[in-house]
Design brief:
Layout: H1 2-26, E1 32-37, E2 50-59, E3 68-76, E4 79-89, E5 99-103, E6 106-110, E7 116-120
Antiparallel strand pairs: 1-2, 2-3, 3-4, 5-6, 6-7
Length: about 130
């Protein structure tokens, strides 16, 4: 009887720990990390103005180290649910150092590592 109670206690502790880890892991999902609005000096003449946002995405449970993905969205300022979205990995703690360069050709997102992500205007104008 004592062995059964020990096994049951172990299982309950494992379940509680799993629920805690999953709860903490998902608590930051959707948190906005970076935002850049289309400057008035840049015009695309198609549903302007646009908004570039970077938010925390889900944890990639199938990848070693469980990195959190980010979701980069280029949307119309008034509608943040419809637009062009990119899901990718970003090293932890670097999102605050992102920068965006808007031009007539599109947007360049600059990462602290020196990498850039060029998003041409054809990928997001027209309400995509």
């Amino acid at each position: 009887m004592k062995q059964i109670l020990v096994v049951i206690s172990g299982i309950l502790c494992l379940v509680a720990y799993t629920v805690l880890v999953l709860g903490v892991a998902e608590s930051h999902r959707g948190k906005e990390l970076f935002r850049s609005e289309q400057p008035a000096t840049v015009q695309y003449h198609s549903f302007d103005p646009y908004l570039l946002t970077v938010v925390e995405g889900p944890i990639r449970w199938t990848t070693l180290g469980w990195p959190r993905s980010i979701i980069i969205g280029l949307t119309r300022s008034r509608d943040d649910h419809y637009g062009h979205f990119i899901d990718m990995n970003l090293p932890a703690g670097t999102a605050g150092e992102l920068a965006a360069d808007w031009s007539e050709a599109g947007v360049i997102l600059r990462f602290p590592s020196g990498h850039t992500l060029d998003i041409p205007k054809t990928a997001f104008i027209g309400g995509r």
